[in-house]
Structures are given as structure tokens and as C-alpha cells.
Amino acid sequence: MSAVQRSEAFNQQPQRSEDNALELTLTVEPERAEELVRRAKETCQAWRDQVRDESHRREAVHKKWRADRLILSDDHHKLREKVQKLQDDRMKVIAQKEKEILQFIANKAG
């Protein structure tokens, strides 16, 4: 119970139930739809940033390989195209998931 009292999410004292003295009740407010939408968009944006960072790191490895002459220029170009295609595919998936989540939130709120 002390964890609930210290929690910033609740920030209230549990109240005794009128029906049962041994039962404690706690009022929980539902989250606002605008807050859920904002958090969903932030999460999807962080996901996109992570995908971009991964692609950038992979591109840096490919450039190093090219500089060390481990791969040819044509191979470097093909790798760049493949990485870009994979990134585009993952971005489409993220956009689709974001659309589904926002639609779900809108349906629940409305």
C-alpha cells in the first residue's frame, strides 16, 4: 500500500469501502485520448529514429569497407540500395502501425 501512496500516478490515499471495512478503494481516472495520441506519436517517432540510426550505422560500416577496399564500388552501391529498400519497408510498417493505433484510440474515445 505504501507503494501506491508514493506513486505519482495515483498520488492519493486509498479510502476504506463503506460496505467492507477490510477493503480499500482507489479512484483511477482514465487517460485522455489526446494524451494517448501524443504518446503513440512519440513512440512511433522514436521507432522511426531508431530505424534511421540503424541504417546510418550500417552505411558507415559499408563506407569503411569501401575505404579499406574490401568491397567494390558497385557492391557499395548495391548495399546502399538494399539498406534504403529495407529502411523504406520498415518505415511503411511503422506508418501502418501508427495509423492502426491512432484509429483504435479514436474509436475508443468517440
From TrEMBL:
Pfam families: RRF. InterPro entries: Ribosome_recyc_fac_dom (IPR023584), RRF_sf (IPR036191). SUPFAM superfamilies: Ribosome recycling factor, RRF (SSF55194). Residues 1-22 are annotated as: Disordered. Residues 2-101 form the Ribosome recycling factor domain. Residues 1-15 have a biased composition (Polar residues). It comes from the Eukaryota. This is Ribosome recycling factor domain-containing protein.
